[in-house]
Amino acid sequence: MPGRRILANLLWEDDLARRRTTPPRAVLATVSGLATLLRAFAREGDRLWTPAPVDPELVLEVPGLPRPILESGPLHELPPVDEVLAWGVHSAIAAAVHHRAFCLQLAEELGCVLPGARMVESLSDLDRILSSSRAPRSWVVKAPLSASGRNRYIERMGPQISDPRSRRPRRTLEHLFDRHGPLLFEPWMDRTADFGVSALLTETGLHIVGVHGQRVDAKGQFAGIDLQPVLSGAERDRLLETVEAVAAALRRAGYAGPFGIDAWRYRKEGGGEILHPLGEINARMTFGRVAWTLAGRVEGAVRLLFGRNLPAPGTGAEILPLLGPGKQGTAAWLEILSPGEPPV
């Protein structure tokens, strides 16, 4: 019986942007390891495709969570299946609504765009922006189709790229423009917390899977999901209102399927904090949805975390290992809330 394939194409953005270069081996190993977490959706007998082969011994046993048949390689060479559940679906509509210009336009319509945010066409265009007296000292440019903190350049302390000392940044930026075309320019905010909302848009309506916190490192790169985020009632309401507005815009564009939004809280120059409710739209599955699905199958799961190695026993919260790190990969585990333990 053909069965079902879970297509964990976590490099979906690269395919959308038609980037044909192979990622570095370490990146490919990390992505492929994390791709095995999509077994959260698995049924007995499912196949799970990852961008590169993964040692099955790294995919750790979890009570109640099936072990799908791991596979990789060209899809046309693999056994046929009746059904495919994909991380991201290739379509012109998905590419259009996943594009940062789409998110920027919607943020402008909703009145929540960051000050000075815009698409920049070239390095000379960026020079003109930075020569203004109102230009932010800390800023970032991002490729229009990218994920997980890849394909961007962050400048926190100057100098401006027109400065003679900025040869290396200019080369980096030229490479980004050459590969990706127009980039999103934003001020780099002093972020104090990151959040996301996972949702599913169907022909019949919007299903909000959940609001979660996102663990990120100092570079803003993804490090995990917290299913018990610390949010005020007003902030949670704002996120839910925003995801409904995003769903309406996606529906107008003809998109249906899983999606998520990223948001964050940042510190203003005066010292107060404010929620930025729409930082990114992901027209695909997200690890927020993976974490919520795992929590539905593993009692007490409150966080999905990643790191170079699994935490040593007895060094913190109760953990349930999901993925061993291997030589070049990344480990993954769930933090479990013990019965009677208060949420953190």
Textual characterization of the structure:
- It is a single chain.
- The protein has 344 residues and is α+β, with helices and mostly antiparallel strands.
- It has 3 domains: 4-88 and 290-336, no CATH class; 118-187; 190-284, ATP-grasp fold, B domain (D-amino Acid Aminotransferase, Chain A, domain 1).
- The protein contains 8 helices and 16 strands.
- The chain has helices spanning 12-16, 25-35, 92-98, 100-110, 123-130, 167-180, 233-253, 287-297, and strands at residues 4-7, 47-49, 69-71, 83-86, 118-120, 139-142, 152-155, 183-187, 190-201, 206-216, 222-226, 257-267, 273-282, 301-307, 318-323, 331-336.
- The chain has an 8-stranded antiparallel beta sheet with strand order 13-12-9-10-11-14-16-15, with helices on both faces. It has a 4-stranded parallel beta sheet with strand order 3-2-1-4, with no helix packed on it.
- A hairpin with a 7-residue loop joins strand 15 (318-323) and strand 16 (331-336).
- The longest helix has 21 residues, at 233-253.
- The chain is globular and about 60 Å long.
- The N and C termini lie far apart (46 Å).
- The model has no long low-confidence stretch (mean pLDDT 91).
